[in-house]
Amino acid sequence: MSFGHTPTAFIVQCEQPCYMTGQNPLPKDVIPPQDVTCLDTKIFLDIPDVTIDDKKYSEIDFKTQAEKGMTPAGYALATFTAGGDNTAESLETANKLYGAVNAALRDRGNRSILYRLKTVHFFIGSQLAASKGPEGKKLVIRNLKKTIKNCGRCTSEERSKFEEMLQAAEAP
Q1: Number of domains in the chain
Q2: What is the dihedral of CA 132, 138, 141, 146, to 10 degrees?
Q3: Which of 30, 39, 47, 64 is deepest in the core (most CB within 10 A)?
């Protein structure tokens, strides 16, 4: 006997990513990347180093540059500006790694590192969107505005550079 219904299946993902604990709910716009995996080493307190596409977060961690006197914003500008070696693929990898750590920090309620990480993460997002050409323009503008908003420890030169990039993105 048929009732004219096509069978449907629902896929429910019950397991959370290895870097998440479930301690705190995430904002709706923070979606932990599912394809990032964990390593045995720690990057912050109890947060594991994460990897994807043969790249580890610890290899692109903004904190390693702080010891050399570089701010998170300075590191973002020097390391993740679109063009040259920073292809859409490499920026996507960096975006996923920073996205995983962003989610893990929020999950654990660690705000002190999160604020510095968000500057780098939003800048990576802006450059990833820029690599997509005109269709990425709205996202470039959104992420540059968020980069500037979270740029509490930026130098005046870094803030000016972000503002110049935003003005260029907003131009017709």
Answers
A1: 1
A2: -100
A3: 47
Name the CA radius of gyration of the chain, rounded: 18
Residue 81 lies in a domain: yes
pLDDT tens digits, one per residue of 75-86: 999 999 998 889
Tell me the residue range of the domain where 156 lies: 37-170
Distance CA 41, CA 27 (A): 27
**What is each CA distance from 155 to 55, 73, 122, 129, 169, in whole angstroms?**
29, 8, 17, 24, 21
Angle subtended at Cα 131 by Cα 129 and Cα 134, rounded to the nearest 5 degrees: 70
Reported pTM? 0.87
On whether residue 42 sits in a domain, the answer given is yes
